Amino acid sequence: METKKALKFTLAIVAIIVGVTLFKQFDFQYLKFEKPALAAVYSITFIGAVYFLFKGEKRK
pLDDT per position in the chain (60 positions), as tens? Predict the structure, then answer.
C-alpha cells in the first residue's frame, strides 16, 4: 500500500514538473515550441506519467 502511494506521489511530481516545463517552452505568439525535439520528449514523458497515475483509478 505504501509503495503505491509513493509511486503515485512521484508520478504526480513528475507530471507537474514536466507539464510546467512544456507550458513555459510554448511560444503563444507564434504557437510553436522553442525546442520541438525536446518538447516531444517532454510530451511523451508527461503523457506516460499521467497514464500511469490514473491507470489504477479505473479498477476501483
Answer: 677 788 899 999 999 999 999 999 999 999 999 999 999 999 999 999 999 998 866 655
C-alpha cell at 2: 505504501
Global pTM?
Answer: 0.83
Instruction: Spell out the domain ranges in the chain.
Output: 2-55
Residue 60, exposed/middle/buried by CB under 10 A (0-12, 13-18, 19+)?
A: exposed
Q: Which helix (H) or strand (E) holds 33?
A: strand 32-33
**Residue whose C-alpha cell reads 489504477 in the numeric block:** 56
Nearest to 47 by CA among 56, 35, 37, 39: 39
